[in-house]
Amino acid sequence: MSPIALFAALLAAPAPLPEGLFYQLPPDGAWARFETAWTYKAGDQTLTGSQTLWMASVGEITENGERCRWIEFRLDAVEGGVKKFWIRKLLIPARYLRRGENPTAHVIRGWTLQEDRDVEPAVAVHGRWPAFLAGAMEDRRALPPVTVKTSLGDLPAEGEAGWIAFDEGATHSRVSFETRLHPKAPFGVLESRIVFEVTGEGGPYTIDSHVTLVAMGSGAVTGIPNYK
């Protein structure tokens, strides 16, 4: 599997709290675009690249008497000169889309799509999600405040760090975070360094990624419109 495909696989796994890149629930229709630079290392092999990650709230509905949100992730990349994308769309009760809750344990349903496949159900127990809906971090600690340059100007940013670990079959992953936060960011995150250390089946390898918020807005529209 290519490094880009490996990073794309991060769009599918259970995660305990809405943290990682999800610290607050914005108004429906809000979107955020992040640029991601990554370095992949496996043995003597080192590769670098970049990708674009979109996060959005793409619908609010009432399901079984409960207010719910469709949360969507889209990853765009170029591999071998070919444009590729991955989309994951999840329906989650709004009361679980906040710190201290476990949103992925309460996914009602979801869908996934990439450029060379048909739409498929998104299964919460398959793959990895920790980069986006992480949480329950071990060794959580505050980082000294810094000023972060953003499209909104220079913003003072609090920060926190920590790590999570999870197993998927015979594969063990540890994911470390150093994240900068500001309430003006749609999902609360201005930037984050996310390091994946994977051992066991398919490993060992690491992906050291730096995710930076570069744009935000309203009026988000789902990339999987006919699946609700």
Describe what this molecule looks like in 3D.
A hairpin with a 2-residue loop joins strand 9 and strand 10 (about 155-170). Residues about 5-20 have low confidence and may be disordered. The protein has one helix at about 5-10, and strands at about 20, 30-40, 45-65, 65-80, 80-95, 110-115, 120, 135, 140-150, 155-170, 170-180, 190-200, 205-215. It is built from one helix and 13 strands, in the order αβββββββββββββ. The strands form two sheets. It has an eleven-stranded antiparallel β-sheet. Strands 1-8 form a two-stranded antiparallel sheet. About 40% of the residues are buried. With about 230 residues, the chain is an all-beta fold.
Per DSSP E runs of 2 or more residues, the count of β-strands stands at 13
| End-to-end Cα distance | 31 Å
Computed Rg: 17 Å
Q: Share of helix among residues?
A: under 10%
The whole-number mean of residue pLDDT values reads: 84
Separate helix tally:
1
Structural class assignment? mainly beta
Topology pattern, helix = H, strand = E: HEEEEEEEEEEEEE
Q: Sum up the overall morphology in one term.
A: globular
Q: Give unreliable regions as ranges.
A: 6-18
In this structure, how is the largest beta sheet organized?
Answer: 11 strands, antiparallel
- Placed side by side, the strands forming the largest sheet appear as 7-6-5-4-3-2-13-12-11-10-9
* Strand residue percentage: over 45%
